[in-house]
Design a protein that fits this description.
Elements lengths: L2 E9 L5 H11 L3 E13 L5 E6 L2 H13 L5 E4 L5 H13 L5 E3 L14 H11 L5 E2 L3 H8 L7 H13 L4 E5 L9 E7 L4 E7 L9 H14 L4 H17 L15 H8 L1
Parallel strand pairs: 1-2, 1-4, 4-5, 5-6, 6-7
Antiparallel strand pairs: 2-3, 7-8, 8-9
The structure holds 3-hydroxy-5-(hydroxymethyl)-2-methylisonicotinaldehyde.
The site of 3-hydroxy-5-(hydroxymethyl)-2-methylisonicotinaldehyde (PXL) has 15 residues, from strand 1 and helix 7.
Length: about 270
């Protein structure tokens, strides 16, 4: 059995964070493990406001020992880290265990949660973790902050950001323009390997229920790498996978709705 790990927050609502990661790993036929960095909960009495509860350094280190020293993983991804020690520990274990299939999802904000996380923390995460990443998977907002570019609203802007983020250490940069790039009728993402740019287009799925789409995408890329795909192959498959997941998206309540990572199976069984 191929093993894979996520270092991420728990999303009590089940659509994002490590819950999305583990569901995705399962669809790829992998054995998933999780080191929990924080617990995110949402307040139904206050318009689903996010509350974040970081776990202590000792708790995180113990989980990382279990996973990386005790078991080993063919690939790993990180999501919301939430503290400086989580950044340091993630770097320490990825480096020490020689995990080259490491996907960094530089999560800076939850959709609908408004404010970006602490900018100094985001800067520290970029500095420490980009040089370890086989693939970094920023969305446009995160690509702006990682590259220092003011506003990315074109494919040329995405290319420039990818170049800068690659220079900061990530071996591949996958910028998710998705539904956000103005004037596009397709979901347009960009892959850069330090040499060539490749635009990766998919069907634009018109849904506001896209909670966890970023987590699912980066988990799917890590899962593809764990299975021995090249970065390009892993990204192309992840793009198909997130498309199917979003095609099966649904509302959890009036505020939030996730994709469904198992939707590709329903398709095959029932249509
Ligand atoms: O979608 C970003 C995200 C990542 N990780 C956790 C989250 C969220 C958004 O809610 O809760 C744990």
């Amino acid at each position: 059995m191929i093993k894979i790990a996520t270092i991420a927050g728990s999303d009590a609502s089940g659509g994002a964070g490590l819950e999305a990661d583990l569901k995705t790993f399962e669809e790829y036929g992998l054995y998933g493990m999780a080191a929990v960095t924080l617990v995110a909960a949402m307040d139904p009495d206050h318009t689903w406001a996010h509350q974040v509860f970081p776990l202590g350094e000792e708790v995180l280190r113990a989980q990382l020992e279990t996973i990386f020293k005790g078991v080993g993983a063919a690939a790993a991804k990180s999501g919301m880290l939430g503290s400086f020690y989580a950044v340091e520990l993630t770097g320490e274990y990825i480096r020490r265990q020689g995990i080259t299939n490491y996907v960094l999802d530089p999560v800076m904000v939850c959709k609908g949660a408004g404010e970006a996380l602490n900018p100094e923390l985001n800067a520290a995460a970029a500095e420490t973790l980009l040089p370890l990443a086989e693939v970094a998977t920023p969305n446009l907002f995160e690509a702006e902050r990682l590259s220092g570019l003011r506003e990315i609203n074109s494919i040329e802007g995405m290319r420039e950001a990818a170049r800068i983020i690659h220079q900061r250490g990530a071996r591949h940069v996958f910028i998710k323009g998705g539904a956000k790039l103005p004037g596009q009728s397709r979901a347009v993402d960009l892959l850069f390997d330090g040499k060539d740019f490749e635009l990766i287009e998919g069907e634009l799925i018109d849904t506001r229920w896209n909670h966890g789409a970023g987590c699912t995408t980066s988990a799917a890329i890590a899962a593809g790498l764990a299975r021995g795909l090249s970065v390009r192959e892993a990204v192309l498959l992840a793009k198909r996978f997130i498309g199917r997941s979003l095609a099966g998206s649904f509302a959890l309540n009036q505020w939030v709705g996730p994709g469904n990572p198992s939707h590709w199976r329903a398709d095959r069984l029932f249509s």
